[in-house]
Amino acid sequence: MVLSWVTFQYLFQEYWPHLVFLLSLVIGGTAAVHAAMTKQDVRAAIAWVGVIIMSPLLGPLLYLIAGINRVRHEHITDQQNRNLRDYFSNPDLPIATPEQLISPHFESLRVLGDRVSHFPLRSGNQISILRGGDETYPAMICAIDSAQKSVALQTYIFDDDSEGRKIVDALARAHERGVQVRVLIDAVGSRYSRPPVIRRLRRSGIPCALFMTNPLGMRMPYANLRSHRKILVIDGCTAFTGGMNIREGFVTAVAGKDTALDTHFRVDGPVVLQLMSVFAHDWSFTTREELPHLDWSCDIWGASGPRVPARCIRSGPDRYIVGTHNMLLGAFAVARRHIRIQSPYFLPDQVLLGALNTAARRGITVDVVIPGRNNLRLVNYAMTAQLDQIIRNGCRVWRARGNFNHSKLITIDGIWSYVGSSNLDPRSLRLNFELDMEIYSEDTAAEIESLIDDEIAQADAVTLESLAAIPFRKRLRNRVIWLASPYL
């Protein structure tokens, strides 16, 4: 036994470089093969294989932490959970008819939505647009204060600031009067505020949780995945959704001349049950607590006004991966007159860029509005690096003046609108859990088009000449950062 140990020490001291080399070959080779066989996006496969080959020991460790999609297999699905299906499978709820799509050329888009979303396109919804925190937060607080049965809130960023505390206070009041309250915050988004607002929620006795975390900290296998969804559902009857986080920078009384802009939506109607289903799905995944359908939904909606078809579109690194990507490809393909896009982070992949370029070459007017002042400099540099790819094909790109606008808005032909939490960047399209709505309404589309056109009226057109005038060192910087755009 002694001789064996001495021999082992001798062999290790003499041949440890060879042993490390063999170990790195085995580990790196296994990781590279796994990446090549499981990644559906060729860019992701090439990138991960490259990282693993360049660093055979560190690369596999990074791939183990951030590259393997375990959520696609672990994330429970509404098809497997009868309680979740009950939120949206009621046969008595109205299904949108072909006539309600307004124009026949949208019928193929409805069929695509059926197959991508697995939610039915419901008629009978009322959609109201809320502009910025000045309109959105008071409306949310008023709705929470009117709650009689339940309040479900899910968001990415929930700051412990003056506006965040107002919403916590409203949630606490609801909890004290016997309303069931659940709050779900993304684990990464919660860290934007110090101290995190979840401590205040817990002190108030409000049931709350962090998405993709555990008591010991963030789950390493999910460190690159985030819930970017924004949902507030009151009594299962009224909901708020869109792209707005909860932070005081969106309120004029606090931020003044630097107030950030955004657009949110109040929803009344059957589509609220789809929003509640998504929340119940994520809450169950995070906490293992099921929210009974009868306690968290309703089937009567009292709001008056025009009723329109709408449906939720889920996307994320689970069974709904590239849901928004597929919907947008279909929407750009059916466009006949005009595509309007407003996005704070416009970094679509080559497939979406190709769809926009094809639409422009078909004679469709394509307008893309991006912020002149962006809150993420690296993303702004990467965006600038690829704008020439659509401008040279006839798309029009506008840099909005004024304050940063976080709105995510798309309209097609003045009829179809797509709104919600998704940005047009690699993270939103493949890594984040996102939630959007498609809406078939000329009135809603006209309101959204007015918001986008108001931005265009005070924006600067981006041209090939203006891009070429950027100093070479900055263009090189932009291009280098653009190469890393899948990871921004």
TrEMBL record:
InterPro entries: CLS_N, PLD-like_dom, PLipase_D/transphosphatidylase. One of its GO terms (biological process) is cardiolipin biosynthetic process. Residues 223-250, 401-428 form the PLD phosphodiesterase domain. The chain crosses the membrane at residues 15-33, 45-66. It is a multi-pass membrane protein. Keywords: Cell membrane, Membrane, Transmembrane, Transmembrane helix. It holds the Pfam family PLDc_N. Its main location: membrane. PANTHER family: CARDIOLIPIN SYNTHASE, PHOSPHOLIPASE D. This is PLDc N-terminal domain-containing protein. It comes from Allopusillimonas soli.
